[in-house]
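Quick one, tokens below:
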């Protein structure tokens, strides 16, 4: 029987990069519980969880033996990375990510996405679009700095959908 090397996996990247899609595929392929940070942070009607409570929720999940956690939340990346044995950074272009968030907003308009907290209907506003567009300038450098300083954790940076496809094809299947 195959033994999976990685049991605590972070999937990070810009909104629209495909974190939730990849996380779901890996969760099914590797039989690991999936935690969406958006579902931990947001409450019904897009009400944010206070930061101390959010950190407590994250820490409770991190203490578990195995998981896949997807999401940005740069302020908690170092904490999450300290527990992970694999970090996958979807480092995609701003054009692709922006296109995908608009597409997602259209597909889920008026509905709650499966990876979101109940009562958070999909929405698109100019602030969010600007945030996605500015991710490479405002968030990516800090993310890369954190990744550079991580020891004893495998890090995989995927730069486009073809690389994700290759990653999935080489990822072992758990029997």
């Amino acid at each position: 029987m195959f033994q999976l090397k990685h049991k605590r996996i972070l999937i990070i990247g810009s909104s629209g990069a495909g974190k939730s899609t990849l996380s779901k595929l890996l969760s099914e392929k590797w039989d690991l519980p999936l935690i969406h940070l958006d579902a931990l942070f947001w409450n019904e009607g897009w009400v944010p969880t206070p930061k101390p409570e959010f950190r407590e929720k994250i820490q409770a999940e991190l203490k578990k033996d195995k998981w896949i956690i997807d999401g940005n939340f740069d302020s908690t990346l170092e904490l999450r990375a300290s527990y992970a044995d694999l970090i996958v950074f979807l480092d995609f272009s701003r054009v692709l990510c922006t296109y995908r968030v608009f597409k997602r907003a259209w597909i889920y308009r008026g509905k709650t996405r499966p990876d979101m907290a109940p009562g958070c209907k999909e929405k698109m506003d100019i602030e969010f679009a600007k945030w996605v567009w500015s991710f490479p300038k405002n968030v990516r450098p800090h993310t890369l700095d954190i990744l550079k300083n991580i020891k004893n954790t495998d890090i995989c940076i995927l730069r486009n959908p073809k690389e994700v496809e290759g990653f999935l094809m080489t990822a072992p299947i758990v029997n």
